[in-house]
Amino acid sequence: MSDVAPTLDAERLAAWVGRTEAAHDVLDPRPLRLAASILPDYGDVLGPMRHWFYFLDAQPLDALGRDGHPARGGFLPPVALPRRMWAGGRLSFHGELRIGDDVEQRQSIASIALKQGRSGPLCFVTTRTEVRVDDQARVVEERDLVYRRDPAPSDPEPQKQMAPSAPAFAREVRPSSILLFRYSALTFNGHRIHYDLDYCRQVEGYPHLVVHGPLLATLLADLAVAQKAGRALRRFSYRAISPLCADAAFMLEGAPASEEGALSLWARALDGGLAMRAEAHFHNGPES
Length: 288
Description:
Mean pLDDT: 93
Number of strands: 10
Distance between the termini: 43 Å
Radius of gyration: 19 Å
Strand content: 25-35%
Low-confidence stretches: none
Order of helices and strands: HEHEEEEEHHHEEEE
CATH class: Alpha Beta
Structural class: alpha+beta
CATH topology: Thiol Ester Dehydrase, Chain A
Largest sheet: 10 strands, antiparallel
Number of domains: 1
CATH architecture: Roll
């Protein structure tokens, strides 16, 4: 375990801003072959967000926190709040990633901010990642993580946001526990809310296993690409709003955005609640 004491001291946490980490990998075909069992297959080209299947961080079991994530105080700061969630992100795509590419990933801590939410303190950590081939960035990503305290009986009910009601295109998803398990395996995501039902309910307070935010973002990006056949993504942004759970069907939906050629997208629970919103922008042709 890391011997760095957890803290909510803004000055101490700020020391992590600018911290960097680099890794190399080769884009092996096996993860994409396995991913084709649950996601669209793009052949030898990595589809949107498939770089998340590489550069996997396999920490020893005794280097993990209670939630299954790596203990804090290494690359990520030692935030003294127990629950960590992937809150959103922004990606820009500058060229294809293909099977066989020798790739480098460069990560840095871009910002750390403490805020007060309706149910207690929050800490937002934004990381910046570049995936590079021949020293040229092919994917540039900003990822927002949020840390929060454990739920309490006195917490106010979350305010439900309603999804748009007039999609131009849609797809239904039925998220089984097997789907969640396979996505956790592909991304080496040890967060127990996706596979440990007792932990999910008794510790983090969810009614059932939680659908991964990154999986939702990937499904929405794939839906966008399917609407723009022959055109490659240029930018994609997403924000998680509320959780979706296993065994409860939900909708992926979208419509043209205000910017010409762009698409607004969202994930909607069947009761109309908004789970994630996203926006996709495209290159003029399939190549960057």
